[in-house]
Structure formats: structure tokens, C-alpha cells
């Protein structure tokens, strides 16, 4: 008889979008500064570059949150003015975390920004993973609202 473990790996996605009344270029300038997270991402204390490269594929950042946790992220895809994709290599309770932030102009003064990610957990219960996905969704939403508020001033 095979004993099924209650703790296993789970996969999921988080996707949040917001429309910001600002130009695509203004939004791109803000989000493409990958070490500028304390300016708009909630609960981020500081972000530093771990590479000389500051943008594009190969740029690496280390994020320190207000609670002291740190995450290292590597940019793995970059299309100037449209999107970038990054992976977290350490600091999350996950085996995989891949996220993309993309912008899509709706008009000259209105742009949709989407932040989406794919996650694969380390061993945790399904409830723990569902709670983590909900936390990430709230984190993205609050950060996007913060960004919108700043860019629409």
C-alpha cells in the first residue's frame, strides 16, 4: 500500500491588471528601474543590483522587505517598452517563481499594466499554497494601486 503524503508540490498562477492614466513611456521608465521597487512595491525596504548590468536580460537584484526577508531575482526576458520577465532564485517558499510585468497602451494617456506569475511550491499543504496565492494576489494589487496613485499625480 502506498501512503499518500498530505504535503506535496502545487502549481498556480497569479495575474493582476490595472489601467493607469499615464503614457506607456512614463510607466516603462518607472517599472524598468528594477532597483526602484521601494518607490512603488509595498513592504519593500530596499533593492540593490547584484550585477553591473542595470536592465535587460542578465540583470540581478536583491530585494529586502520590511520584515527582513530577502529575495534574489534574475531578469530572463526583456523587451524595452513592453515587458520583462524575472525569476526568483532564492528567498521564497517555492521551487519555481517566474513573473512578467507587461504594459499595453490603451490610448496615448491610458495604459494597462499586467503583473502575472507562475509558482510551484516547495512541500506544503494545499491550504497553505492557496493562502500563499491569495497573499501574492493581494501584494500585486496593493503594489499596482500604489504605482497608479504615484503615476497619476
What is the structural class?
alpha+beta
Number of helical runs?
Answer: 2
The largest sheet has its strands arranged as 1-7-6-5-4-3-2
CATH class descriptor name: Alpha Beta
Could you please say which CATH topology applies here?
Answer: Alpha-D-Glucose-1,6-Bisphosphate, Chain A, domain 4
CATH architecture: 2-Layer Sandwich
CATH superfamily: START domain
Q: What's the oligomerization state?
A: single chain
Rg for CA atoms: 16 Å
Helix content: 10-25%
> What sequence of helices (H) and strands (E) makes up the elements?
EHEEEEEEH
Number of strands: 7
| Beta-strand share of residues | 35-45%
Tell me the domain tally: 1
What is the arithmetic mean of pLDDT? 93
**Low-confidence region ranges:** 1-5
Alpha-carbon distance between the termini?
Answer: 63 Å
Describe the protein's architecture and organization.
- There is one protein chain.
- This protein has one domain (11-151): 2-Layer Sandwich (Alpha-D-Glucose-1,6-Bisphosphate, Chain A, domain 4), CATH 3.30.530.
- It is built from 2 helices and 7 strands.
- It has helices at residues 24-31, 126-151, and strands at 11-20, 44-49, 60-65, 70-79, 83-90, 94-107, 110-121.
- Strands 1-7-6-5-4-3-2 form a 7-stranded antiparallel β-sheet, covered by helices on one side.
Amino acid at each position: 500500500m502506498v501512503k499518500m503524503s498530505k504535503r506535496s508540490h502545487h502549481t498556480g498562477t497569479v495575474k493582476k491588471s490595472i489601467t493607469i492614466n499615464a503614457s506607456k513611456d512614463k510607466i516603462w521608465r518607472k517599472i524598468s528601474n528594477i532597483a526602484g521597487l521601494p518607490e512603488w512595491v509595498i513592504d519593500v525596504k530596499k533593492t540593490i543590483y547584484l550585477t553591473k548590468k542595470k536592465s535587460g536580460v542578465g540583470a540581478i537584484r536583491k530585494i529586502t522587505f520590511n520584515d527582513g526577508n530577502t529575495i534574489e531575482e534574475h531578469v530572463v526576458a526583456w523587451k524595452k517598452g513592453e515587458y520583462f520577465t524575472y525569476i526568483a532564485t532564492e528567498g521564497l517558499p517555492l521551487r519555481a517563481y517566474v513573473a512578467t510585468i507587461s504594459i499595453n497602451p490603451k490610448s496615448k494617456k491610458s495604459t494597462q499594466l499586467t503583473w502575472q506569475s507562475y509558482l510551484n511550491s516547495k512541500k506544503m499543504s494545499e491550504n497553505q499554497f492557496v493562502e500563499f496565492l491569495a497573499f501574492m494576489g493581494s501584494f500585486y494589487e496593493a503594489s499596482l494601486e500604489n504605482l497608479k496613485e504615484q503615476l497619476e499625480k
